[in-house]
Please model this.
Amino acid sequence: MNELLSAINAKGQFVQLAGRHIHELIQAKMQDSYFCPQCKAPVLIRAGSKVAPHFAHFPNSDCPSSKGGEGSYHHKGKARLWEWLNNQGYDVELEAYLPKTQQRPDILLHTKKRRIAIEYQCAKIPEPEISNRTKQYLQAGIFPFWILGGNRLKRKGTNMIQLTSFDRNFIYHFPDYRIHYFDPITDKLMIGSYLQGTGSNITFSNLHYFSLTGISFNAIFSSQNLLLNDMPAGWKSFIKKRRIRPLGHSSPQEKSWRQYLYAKGYHPSLLPAITYLPVPSQIQLTEPPWIWQSRYYLDTFLRTPVSGLLPMKLTQPVVPLLHVSVKPNPLKEYLDLLCRLGLVVEEQPGKYRKRKEAVNPLTIEEAMKQDEIVFNSFKKRVKP
Model:
């Protein structure tokens, strides 16, 4: 039987089970009949000491919503999120059915300016389904806000998380690249902000944990006072490992890049620090930063004389993200970093002139010392 947290009673009133006490549920079971908001078929209340309160379809239901069940983790999470929003005074519905789109978002929030469909996603579903549901919400004038279950958060280090192709469907940009998780067991909301890609599913992130009672819904969208291109903690040690580790197994993309470097007379461990810089939109690139930046450095920057204009061409394609509408410009972000290092100057919007040459390290020791100087220079914070 598929589980619901809301239904319609015989009077046509919308009934929710979140926050109801067991004695209220027992009385409700005896006094009224309930129907699924989507298929209108009868549903029954189930509740007990080991069963979270919910409405359930009868066996062999033909309701589209009964195609896949939801676990107790998901039910507990969306009920807790509804309670959190309700306590802040929002007009909020749990599992409201939308006839126009034939969808039933986990939570529908009404504000003075817009409606927001909050989807609490704990399990993997087909990616086209995410895209279709998102498009339908937008066409109906509803903003879709997806929150992943805390069970999907995979930490790979102090400042690193794993983002699969599925997880990337839930990245937002306001005002930086970020992703949201909620764990009903710990009652913690986790926000991974300033996501910095590495060309693989390992992503650098400023991961912050918030008690749900200690943060408001509006605060989720606020900007932290950090530069978008602030150097991620751990980036220096990450690049150090890349410089000194043996080749070992590498992808075809990496092998092709190494062959390119050798043909140019360079070794990956002796590239200047400016070819290992993270940029804000790296999360939307399939190539690691050291691949496309070293190609630009060797093929364009070195060939451009001092005082010459730098071409603004980059063949690296940008991969679109479902919830990111801004058009990224990784090359501009990169040249802006070189401006901060004094190697380049932006004379007018979109026109960059080379000021001086970069220093090529001759030994790994020199390379790591250069990394230390360059990377540390990007740790400055914007003052509130």
